[in-house]
Amino acid sequence: MTEVQATVEKARSAARWWGGLSYNERRSRLLAWKRHIARHIGELAALVAEETGKPQDDAALEVMLAVEHLDWAARNAGKVLGRHRVPSGMLAANHVATLEYLPLGVIGVIGPWNYPVYTPLGSVSYALAAGNAVVFKPSEHTPRTGAWLADAWATAVPGEPVLQAVLGDGAVGAELTWSGVDKIAFTGSAATARKVMATCAETLTPLVVEGGGKDAMIVAADADLDAAARAAAFGGFGNAGQTCAGVERVYVERSVYPEFLGKLSALAVGEQTMTTPEQPAIVRAHVEDAVSRGGRAVVGGPSSITASTVAPVVLAEVPEDSIAVTEETFGPTLVVNPVDSVDEAVQLTNASKYGLAASIFSKDSHGATRIARKLRTGAASVNAVLGFAGVPSLPFGGVGDSGFGRIHGADGLREFSRAQAVTRQRFAAPMDLMRLDRDPKVMQRALRLFHFRHGR
Ligand code: NAD
């Protein structure tokens, strides 16, 4: 038996114990884990900073956001998932109908390296709160962070191994996918998601995919340009641009385009470390493609990218078929293109194969919220970037190559549950059609009623 198989087997028995606890009993244990993480935030953030190369304050912010979600999942699981009555309808008026969302069993969580706490915990916390045991395979670039989270669980909730980590690269992820877990929560690139889904198809294992993004920011002519430029800089250059729902494209109404470019360029400073050795070459290829197709490097250029560091790059008037526009760059580069109208910006935003999130800047914030409905994305922020990330009651997930299924919020709890419908007959039906010796007269009456109700 391999280590992964043995770990999943241990998780099976832990899942039986964990799933058998009441919502309150699970809540108190989840909150004990939360307190442990919160009390050791400095230690965890230092580890994340060491493994990813991000500044420690950014790592601490990531932990703070993750803990907020954990707290919400722990406190709301009972309310969202617990058995509750639903209307039983006309035909089954003699039944009481109830619905509960029960645990699936063991969830395999496969995580990325860019936010090695916040991102996997978006699945782990909600899966645990829904009553499942979890086997977590962190990215091979951030194994110690993954192990720390599982060790923290074992310390805060000693006894059954409800949360365990298995360490290794894609081969270990593939093994976990094969292992017969009850669901896989995968976060990573669309290319890997396709492989994971193919494996899941073999065993009919359900899957939630949190994929990459090519998120656009739309800047209307009436926008607060200082705020928009600040948000674009944070969303585009923060975490060295390695944010799934970070800003990668900015569409600016033509009348304010030069002014916006000027403000953004002034903020495009600071060299950052990239987490993986492969990433700088990808970023450079995108910048070179944009420039060779006639895009203008307003700040930086191919020379901003060294073997391990990248300084911000601002690219203007980049053709929409350049890979800097069509593919996820995952580096601190921003493509800033002018548009004739917000409608054109919406159309270009939606032309991407990705659909994770977007942001809109406009003084008419209600109008901007209406525009959000036209976007083919799972989330949108008005007059901010990544506003949804810190709202635990909102679901998170994308469409297209950005994935499917939802983490966070009530949808995120249900994602790791099976709906169970139960009816309880209170009295015999006055018109009983569910019997072999059905009375034809009762059937006639039922049909008359049916026509009256639905055929008029
Ligand atoms: P990746 O696809 O290279 O790897 C993700 C995980 O999958 C890793 O743990 C890896 O070991 C594992 N893996 C690799 N091959 C596998 C296989 N055949 N079977 C099972 N598992 C396998 O992604 P990455 O480079 O670690 O992360 C960056 C990507 O993640 C970006 O595209 C980013 O946008 C995306 N991301 C998305 C979200 C979100 O919530 N939507 C959050 C963070 C990151």
UniProtKB/TrEMBL annotation:
PROSITE patterns: ALDEHYDE_DEHYDR_CYS. Residues 3-422 form the Aldehyde dehydrogenase domain. Keywords: Oxidoreductase. The keyword Membrane does not apply. InterPro entries: Ald_DH/histidinol_DH, Ald_DH_C, Ald_DH_CS_CYS, Ald_DH_N, Aldehyde_DH_dom, Aldehyde_DH_NAD(P). It comes from the Bacteria. Belongs to the aldehyde dehydrogenase family. This is Aldehyde dehydrogenase. It comes from Actinoplanes subglobosus.
